[in-house]
Predict the 3D structure of the following.
Amino acid sequence: MGEMQELSTFWFVTIGAVKVLAVFTVVMVVVAYMTLAERRVSAFIQDRLGPNRVGPFGLLQPIADGLKNIIKEETMPGTAAKFYFVLGPALAIMPAVVTMAVIPFAAPLPTPVGTVDMVVADVPIGILYILALSSLAVYGIVLSGWASNNKYAFLGGLRASAQMISYEVALGLSVIAVLLLVGNVTLTETVWQQQQLGMWFVFPLSLAFIFFLISALAETNRLPFDMPEAESELITGYHTEYSAMKFSMFFIAEYAHVVTASALLATLFFGGWDIPFWTGDDMFRHESGWIKGFDEAGAPIAATPSVLITLLTLGAFCAKTGFFLLLYIWIRWTLPRFRYDQVMHLGWKVMLPGALGYIMLVAGTMLVLEQLEVPFGMLYGGVLTGVSGITTLAFLFFVDRDRVISGAHRKRNVGRRRVPVAREAGGPAASN
Amino acid sequence: MGIDKPGILGSGSPTFLTTKLDFVVNWARRNSLWPMPFGTACCAIEMMASAASNYDLARFGMERMSFSPRQADVLICAGRVPYKLAPVLRRIWDQMMQPKWCISMGACASSGGVFDVYSMVQGIDTIVPVDVYIPGCPPRPEGLIYGLMMVQEKIRGESLAYHDELRAEDPLAVGRPRADDEEVADLTGPFGNSTHQNRVSGLVDTDAIGRAEDRLP
């Protein structure tokens, strides 16, 4: 059993405050540079250069944008509901920022005053906390859309609420598959169980990963699901009437959501801070010490936290999160937008029953494996991987564009009788 | 100490502190000009071309087109404006938040161009105060980018001490070009031949500037 020195109350509070500040700052900086990355990557995708004039490689662009927005004039439309108009951006940004609190970002760090968990708050309700708070984000959007007293903003807000509530269901159901496998809702335990299983959950729960990825895209209101903004239809949707820093708040909120969703994808399905193919970083708080696993007899094996492992795992977490951030940008600049009815169709008629059925499948497979007393390890994960892989392929085949979500041209042509070309010379009267 | 120039920082000449603040503020403003595209005609096609890969406005951080005037910094009026559209243009300008600038892109927006007819606004400077006129029919993307860089130059010289003058919204009082004819001719040189230059040269006399009030809708 590894020696573990508990933090005294003083250090617990002090280090907690430092962690809050550090995580908040890092998220804000990542959000700022995410906007630059978005513009640069989109430029590269479109054979352009992107912002490169402000500072080296355009690195000062987010600072110029932020500063300009701070000193720009604020909007306060005469007919707006003033209190809610101001409340909207605050409500939008709050859930986006606080959800990072429960995501573990590295292995525990040993310090002279005790071992520090590398997570702001390891609350026992973990994922439930994230689901509860991320669904609050819709209030900020729908409230600002309504309070603006502007028809475009109002429509944007309505669309946002419909979309976010629809995909909240699929998001929650896809997480249930993970909860079944972990047996708990804390994210630290999610990471630990992935280390124990010997594989990341993306393999045994591949369909849940796909559902989560799609729902997360819809939750963050980004292309191909940016119904609430939809420039071609709604000007800029719910934030049409907002200028300056209030508008920036929505922007920050959107990107903070993306950062949180990426970190969550990395944690739930890609092992969190786990370094692949190396068991040296396996670490979990067990009773009063840190363990790296259990031996044959079921006795815990002690683990020793070290600064090096903390730094390495932090790097692994950042790499995984960064990959998903890039994936988000990549998807946005590659795919066109869905039509509104297609979004609803996909959410309610495909993802919801699909996720429900998948939960049954995972639960059933797990029940069979438990009955056969297969130990929680590679074989266990392998069987689940096989079952999930077949289901995923079947699902992808099923949602193929022309089967469920058909293109407009396709739908129009289906069932239309082909008019035979008039064989004989003659006017229009000769045809059919 | 007269209060002849009441800016937001009070009266008097700019001090060290305010000039340094001016520098930072102007730096941020000129490097983050979000255009409000008001494209009414063929100039808008050139505007789109200047955002595309060959010319790439994004390099200056200007590719973030604000379709909501609330978030825009510079109004690019690209194309002719008939009298029916004039109130719309003015409303969009009014909806934009300060600080804001306006670019009149193309001959039609600047002077009415070839449309010297009963239905067409003879230069949008009768409706909104214009900062930079871009001649050409339509101007090439290089022209638009040069015009935007001239807006940047203009911002570089601004000072918070002259806030009220710079942020005035009345087109007839302040919308006139501050430069004299020779300076206008110098500045517009890189754009090539244009209606504006013809007017400056004295060879063509349309009276378009002289009778601005007559042409208000």
